[in-house]
Amino acid sequence: MEQAPEYVIEMLHITKIFPGIKANDDITLQLKKGEIHALLGENGAGKSTLMSVLFGLYQPEEGVIKKDGKEVKINDPNDATALHIGMVHQHFKLIDVFTVLDNIILGAEDTKLGFLQKKEARKKVKELSERYGLHVDLDAKIEDITVGMQQRVEILKMLYRDNEILIFDEPTAVLTPQEIEELMAIMRGLVKEGKSILFISHKLNEIMEVSDRVSVLRKGKYIGTVNTAETTKEELSSMMVGRPVQLVVDKDEAKPGEAVLEVKDLTVPSKIHANNAVKNVSFTAHAGEITCIAGIDGNGQTELVYALSGLEKATGGTITLCGKNITKSSVRQRSFAGMSHIPEDRHKHGLVLDFTLEQNLVLQRYYEKEFQNAGFIKFGAVREYANKLIEQFDVRSGQGPITIARSMSGGNQQKAIVAREIDRNLPLIIAVQPTRGLDVGAIEFIHKRLVEERDAGKAVLLVSLELEEVMSLSDRILVMYEGEIVGELDPKKTTVQELGLYMAGAKRDNGEKKEDQA
After folding, report:
1. Considering the chain, what percentage of its residues have pLDDT values greater than 70?
2. CATH assignment of the domain containing 490
3. What is the mean pLDDT of the chain?
4. For helices 410-423 and 440-455, what crossing angle results, to 10°?
5. Which domain holds residue 473?
6. What is the pTM (predicted TM-score) of this model?
7. With a cut of 50, which residues of the chain have pLDDT below it?
């Protein structure tokens, strides 16, 4: 009797080249049946490219793929699906105006005499969702459900197609801590049922918690594979970055100065429901201090930042920046008044994706004397400035300043925005999820820069969902729950557990515990 092969998927000597860059350089990756195999690497190390080759989105220049020991050719995602390979992409591939059920069966519809057999499909999806604990409302539209729920839809899409090899590309980048816990439990359940998972991540905690083995890529090359149980976060981070990395923020005591931003009784309406998203919020951000707004996603932080930065209108209250009332000012006027903004959604509000990197780096400054003369842009000055920032902030791209922003990896897009906003040297930096989707090396770098800005006397307003980041980077924590600030905490005197209680609305600053939710 033939022995079953040890590996269900083997990618042998894969090389993939894009203009100006070898994204994958002779990489070999082997996945065992029934394991969670993590793929770890910096932003732009070639992780997503390698998985896109396996899923048939790219064709490699060299190398072969084997499934169950036999060589296979994957020309497109339909070939991958036929081989029972499925993928949850970093940016979900869902149709907003369709229901959950329609999204799951799209492209794999069951028909009889040309009629859609939705009843059978619904039954199959219901059975799958119960078996794997993936509960989601099948009749809800995608645009009305949370990001965590959308991810469940993507996983159900794979299971509906009877996929055996499941690729998760950065699955936790947009989830809350609670949703991440749920996802880990779901992944363990899938493996128990005999599925095999490839899990792309650069969050070391998650990799240590959920994976069996880890393969590390660096700058497109394969560095090695280790058993998770026999390694440490420190070892993994230096394999990934090529040097030891500080996993804890190193900073002196803050020396708060005068108030830079004063917010009084701010009210912002909600686009989703009749209630206000921000209700009579008041707080102050001081020079020389990192003030953090923490909370579970969807508790009014986004609307608060939109009102502060001028993307939405407030219906009540005042915003004062450097002594000037900017409540009704335009985005550009706020910029002139001293505000820089690292936005939450880098694609929507941070970059013009079809512009070059150098054009994006001068988006808010092209009209300054340094970059224009009598209305004509000084291209040499723009290029020189871009090269300076690219070097200072280690922004990696295939063609340097003339790279189109869309073609850069998410982490390098983020670094470009951070470089542009910090370099403007303004009294207030609003940093929303500044390290979302970044690897440890880049996180260390951005945390260092924000602390330097604080020490140079800037006011930093940090909005973050990452509990570790909140605890290690901030000097003062304000917790938002259901549009209100329910607590002000000192990170040196509080615990993650206490912070969690405030974030869940079980505790408020007047010391009372809300019995109904505690």
Report:
1. 96
2. 3.40.50.300
3. 88
4. 10
5. 259-338+426-503
6. 0.73
7. 1, 511-518
